[in-house]
């Protein structure tokens, strides 16, 4: 191996490590070569070197080959702490924007993304996705409108998180008391009262009414 090859590998090795660490599924050599902007042969050399490094007992992770792809995995002897962590309910916090969006969904469910954004006045796609990842919101069919947008509703986990038996236990709008002791104002959820139209009465009708 030449000095240039060693220098190149030293530069690419940490990049390969980051890719494998962040990957949610095994990455094929051709994918890694494309991301690292190098050859598949160089990728194989890098994989061999990185695999040898993580074989050291000082590391809790290892590189595994799954269906010709590569990915980080926990070494079997260190699996127990991970199992305990996964099976322990995790607390999480919600941003003001997330709580506002969740409030809208809770009180107007099932509701579509366009309707949520109409109420908030801002794009809410990434917030809805985050709420789905936290399992507080789920898809509930599609609306019978143009484009048939997806409808969203709250989940059982939403009820457990906020200590509710069912949706009927939701506090009345315009406030929803959150666990973080923050009040989210949802006045926009309240449809403005539409005044009843005045009926024009002719003079003859008025006279008849008076009589």
TrEMBL record:
Keyword hit for Cell cycle: yes
Gene3D superfamilies, sorted: Winged helix-like DNA-binding domain superfamily/Winged helix DNA-binding domain
Pfam family, one: SMC_ScpB
Residue runs in coiled coils: none
Keyword 4Fe-4S carried by entry: no
Keywords of this entry: Cell cycle, Cell division, Chromosome partition, Cytoplasm
InterPro entries, alphabetized: ScpB_csome_segregation, WH-like_DNA-bd_sf, WH_DNA-bd_sf
GO BP: any one term: chromosome separation
Protein's name according to its UniProt entry: Segregation and condensation protein B
Organism: Candidatus Termititenax persephonae
